[in-house]
Specification:
- The protein is an alpha+beta fold.
- It has two domains: 9-46; 76-193, Double Stranded RNA Binding Domain (2-Layer Sandwich).
- The chain is 35% helix and 20% strand.
- It has helices at 8-47, 76-91, 126-139, and strands spanning 98-102, 146-153, 159-166, 172-180, 184-193.
- It has a five-stranded antiparallel β-sheet with strand order 1-5-4-3-2.
- β2 and β3 form a beta hairpin.
Length: 198
């Protein structure tokens, strides 16, 4: 009886088939995963539609309205400082650095500080934070859009001048603030300037 010696080619073929089987088992989940991710990524893009707002057409019906009566009652806060503001504007009328002076009906920013109030010039103080808030309201910009360059004493112990510039340096302002007892910093005057001179 002769022993059957396995053929080397057959063994090699079996090894190759086992290897191919192993790669097929790994390849199928890999392809499924790629297909799944492709759908997950492209589906939101395909579903993204231009949403146009529904506009309602209103019928115009004139309503008889009483004419609004104009009142000459000034803002009580601004009225208290009107003389001082007029004096500051008058003194700076010949200053070529000033582009424009603005006075609006501002109100004090709410404060969390106790009385008696003392001005704190430290940029980490609550007082400085509230000054920035008041300046932000006065120049109609968010605190991220401008930076405070300098603080100086105003016309009395409870007033201050804040020198600010927009981040791109296209606008520069001097903002006059006055402390209103138990209420907070009140903008009383904003002057747009060419250069911040302090």
């Amino acid at each position: 009886m002769t022993s059957i010696e396995p053929n080397k080619r057959v063994q090699k073929l079996r090894r190759v088939r086992r290897g191919n089987y192993f790669y097929r088992i790994l390849l199928i989940p890999l392809l499924c995963g790629i297909f799944y991710l492709g759908i997950k990524i492209t589906l939101p893009i395909l579903n993204q539609q231009k949403i146009e707002p529904n506009t309602a057409k209103a019928m115009f019906t004139p309503i008889a309205q009483e004419p609004k009566q104009m009142t000459d009652i000034p803002n009580p806060y601004q009225a208290n400082y009107r003389e001082k503001v007029n004096e500051i504007i008058k003194d700076s009328i010949n200053d070529e650095n000033i582009i424009e002076s603005t006075v609006k009906e501002w109100v004090p920013n709410k404060t969390s500080q106790a009385e008696p109030h003392t001005i704190h010039f430290s940029y980490q103080s609550q007082d400085f934070y509230e000054m920035e808030e008041a300046v932000s309201n006065a120049i109609s910009l968010t605190k991220e859009d401008f930076s405070v360059w300098h603080l100086s004493k105003g016309y009395d112990q409870q007033s201050i001048k804040v020198y600010v510039a927009t981040n791109d340096l296209s606008y520069k302002y001097v903002v006059y603030l006055h402390w209103v007892v138990k209420e907070g910093w009140l903008p009383i005057l904003v002057q747009e300037v060419k250069d911040l001179k302090y």
